[in-house]
Structures are given as structure tokens and as C-alpha cells.
Design brief:
Number of strands: 20
Radius of gyration: 26 Å
Strand content: 15-25%
Number of helices: 12
Structural class: alpha+beta
Shape: globular
Strand order of the largest sheet: 2-3-1-4
Length: 445
């Protein structure tokens, strides 16, 4: 239930930002705005502003719109013709269309700026193990190295190091890693193997290094309904003691054991309150063939040692620069993913719909403000990019029409525009169907 609440909060906020971009620029261009709607359908609430704009909240929270005065949609009084959208110059119409996605990208920049100023906590990027003859071993790295910089940019946390390495993995090129090793600093050229977006989880294993992680007590927090964990009788608060007769010292041991025993029955013992109970657990195989049970860890029972704590933080001016860079990097990564789906290099199984977004919204909100704001920034960028796709009915489709108009010297015929709208609607419905199908497959498959 809370996931749905956070999903609605996130979606409503991003819709308002997107539509306000259209609204703000339209007003600055002298266009009269008739309605500003958050959601579709019959209005649940409406208010007429002093500027003549009707502000509306509608029941279907899957988008919104700004309705402008336009001769193509009805009669316009002669004294208001100058305020009609269709009477504006081509540059003004293009600016109004682009303003929505631009507002989403601007919001992402401000969200990242906030995160970088407040500081993003994390774990120091210290390498626990280096596999013999691996890529990083051949470059010269050894166990205990701490990654200080990648390509001259500070990487104080594993998350920042992972993102920097992942950008190289998109192309498969070389990165310059500056590490603290044995009291000195060394810089190594490391060739990063090319990986598809959906293979990002293999990055560290492909490089041959294991991140140093703190020991996390094997105490369960969240149990997914109808999952193997729920069927075995596991409950939130259970502490895992043994599995297959072996003592469990930390959560990582448990995860490794589960992943290696897909479709097998594992005898386990747990402590629940003051009693110790034996149970049987059968992990199911995921898409990658590894076992999974549908249970999360309660990190409140573990404390991160001070020597492993770190934080990614910048001064306000540097934070703004880094926020722009981060927005651009996520934008380019998203575009690469979309292109990969079109070319077949990236599976469309990675496409998520409202259900997936709601689940991520809920989990990010539960992790705290930093996680939720980061989620909002990424979704805002994605929303901006999707709206710029050259599909009729989207902002990008309107922009394409205007570009063609500029090249022809006159608008496309009404029949062509209507047919384009029909094609655009079909493509959007197909995209929504695929996203919903993937969501339901993850939920029930």
C-alpha cells in the first residue's frame, strides 16, 4: 500500500514539473492556457485562476496535459487570436513543446545538486580480493587497494566507483584507476570489458575483484508474499542460524548459499524470539539461473564500521557542475539502453511499467530521503527522454512535425497529422502493453 502512495507522490510531482514547463513557457510566449490538468478523466477538483486558466486534478494519474487556446480545437474569439498556439511563430511553438522535457531534466539537475551538497553516504571502495590472472590483477592491483579516483574523478564510495566503471563498460574501453596501495598512490590502466546494460551486475566479477563489504547479520526483515521464503514459514525478525548443517555468520554467506542451491531443498534453523526452529527451504531459480527466496535483510542489526564509512559530497558550486554531469551521464545511458532495445542488443525484459516503478518508489522511500530523491531524479530524466521520442502524440512527435514544417516552409496536411496521431497512439499502447506484461511476469512469474 505504501508503495502505491509513494508512486502517486512521485508521479504527481514529476507530472506537475513537466506540465508546468509547458505552462510557464507558453505564458511567456503570449499563449493563453485554458486548462492545466494533473491526471486524465473527469475532474475530481478544479479551480479557475485569475489568469483564466482552469487548474484540474483528474482521477487517472498516468500523465497530465496543458490545454492551450488553438483554432484547430475550436472557435477562437477574434480579440484572442494573437494568444492562440497555432498563431505563434515556429520557434515559439518549438520552445513550448520542448519546455516540458526540459523541466524534467532541470529538476534532475537540482535533485542531484541537493544530493551532492547534503552528501551521499556509502562504503569506501576497498578491494577485498583480486582473482589471479584477472583483468585487475594483470593491471597491477592487489587485495586491500582502495580506489581513490577513476579518470581523475574522486570515487569515495563503491557506488560512485561502480557508476564510473559502468560507463566504460558500455563501450568496452580503458579506465585510469588511482588507488591507495600499501601507503602509496598508484595509477593503473584497466581495460574494462564491454557489457550490455542488463549485464551490469557482472562487472566486478568480470574485472576479477571482490568489493570489501561489512558483515551483515543474517536477520530477515521483509518477506515477499507467496515466495519460497513465505512458503517455508520464514517471518520478519527471524535470525538465520544454520543452513545445510553449516553455521551462518553473515548475510553474504546466506545469499551465496541460496544462489548456489536453486530448486534444491535446504534444511535450515532459525531463532525466533527465544526458540530455535528447524525449517525446510526450496529456493526458486531466477532468470539468471541463480536461486532466490524473496526475503530481505534487516540492516538495523548491523553497524557499518567507521573505517569503512565514506560520503560523496561537494561544495555548492562544484555540486552544480557534478549534477549537470550526472544528469548527462544518466541521460546518455538511458538513450543507449533504448537504442539497444531497438537493435536487439538489450532485452526488452528490462522495460518496466507502473508496477515496477511503484515497487522501486516504495523501496527507495523506505531507505530514506537520499534514496527517494535519487529515484525521483532518475525517473524525471526517463520521463523527459521518453517524451522527446519522435512518436506522434508525444512532445518529440510534435517537435518532429515542427522540424518538417520548417523544412517544407508550411505545415504537414491535416490528414497526415491525423494519421500520425493514430500511429503514435498505437505505438504508445504497444509500449504500455509490453511494460505491463513485464511487470506482471516479474510479479507472478
Amino acid at each position: 500500500m505504501m508503495s502505491l502512495v509513494y508512486f502517486l507522490i512521485a508521479l504527481s510531482l514529476l507530472i506537475v514539473i513537466h506540465e508546468y514547463g509547458h505552462f510557464w513557457v507558453a505564458r511567456r510566449c503570449g499563449v493563453k492556457v485554458l486548462r492545466f490538468s494533473v491526471g486524465f478523466g473527469k475532474p475530481l477538483w478544479s479551480r479557475l485562476g485569475r489568469d483564466g486558466t482552469e487548474h484540474v486534478i483528474a482521477p487517472i494519474p498516468l500523465g497530465g496535459y496543458v490545454k492551450m487556446l488553438d483554432e484547430r480545437e475550436g472557435n477562437v474569439p477574434e480579440n484572442e487570436l494573437g494568444q492562440a498556439f497555432n498563431r505563434q511563430s515556429l520557434p515559439k511553438r518549438m520552445a513550448i513543446v520542448v519546455a516540458g522535457p526540459a523541466a524534467n531534466l532541470a529538476f534532475a539537475v537540482m535533485a542531484y545538486w541537493f544530493l551532492f551538497v547534503v552528501g551521499i553516504p556509502g562504503i569506501k571502495p576497498i578491494v577485498a580480493e583480486v582473482a589471479p590472472q584477472s583483468i585487475v590483477a594483470q593491471a597491477g592491483m592487489v587485495s586491500g587497494d582502495e580506489i581513490l579516483q577513476i579518470d581523475g574523478r574522486d570515487t569515495p564510495t563503491w557506488n560512485s566507483a561502480f557508476k564510473a566503471l559502468l560507463r566504460h563498460a558500455e563501450q568496452g574501453d580503458q579506465a585510469q584507476l588511482t588507488v591507495a596501495s600499501g601507503g602509496t598512490q598508484q595509477t593503473y590502466g584497466v581495460t574494462i570489458p564491454q557489457l550490455a546494460i542488463d549485464e551490469a551486475g557482472r562487472l566486478f566479477s568480470e574485472l576479477g575483484m571482490t568489493p570489501l563489504r561489512p558483515d551483515i547479520a543474517p536477520v530477515l526483515e521483509q518477506i515477499v508474499p507467496d515466495s519460497p521464503a513465505a512458503e517455508a514459514g520464514l517471518q520478519a525478525g527471524d535470525r538465520l542460524l544454520t543452513a545445510n548443517g553449516k553455521e551462518l555468520n553473515n548475510w553474504n554467506d546466506w545469499v551465496e548459499l541460496i544462489q548456489q542451491n536453486a530448486d534444491e531443498t535446504i534444511p535450515i534453523t532459525i531463532r525466533r524470539g527465544d526458540s530455535v526452529q528447524p525449517l525446510s527451504l526450496s529456493p526458486e531459480a531466477g532468470e539468471d539461473g541463480k536461486g532466490r527466496i524473496g526475503a530481505g535483510v534487516d540492516t538495523d542489526f548491523s553497524r557499518l564500521p567507521a573505517e569503512l564509512q565514506s560520503e560523496l559530497r561537494y561544495d555548492p558550486v562544484t555540486a552544480l557542475k557534478e549534477a549537470v554531469v550526472q544528469t548527462w551521464l544518466f541521460t546518455s545511458s538511458t538513450l543507449s539502453s533504448l537504442w539497444g532495445m531497438l537493435t536487439g542488443d538489450v532485452s526488452t525484459d528490462n522495460l518496466g511499467g507502473p508496477i515496477s516503478i511503484a515497487q522501486i518508489a516504495g523501496s527507495s522511500a523506505e531507505q530514506g530521503l537520499i534514496s527517494f530523491v535519487s529515484f525521483l531524479a532518475m525517473i524525471s530524466i526517463t520521463l523527459g527522454i521518453l517524451n522527446l521520442l519522435p512518436i506522434p502524440m508525444l512532445d518529440g512527435g510534435h517537435l518532429l512535425m515542427f522540424i518538417i514544417e520548417a523544412m517544407r516552409g508550411k505545415p504537414l496536411p491535416d490528414e497526415v497529422q491525423i494519421r500520425g496521431q493514430q500511429i503514435g497512439l498505437f505505438l504508445l499502447l504497444m509500449l504500455m502493453f509490453l511494460a505491463f506484461f513485464n511487470d506482471l511476469s516479474r510479479l507472478f512469474g
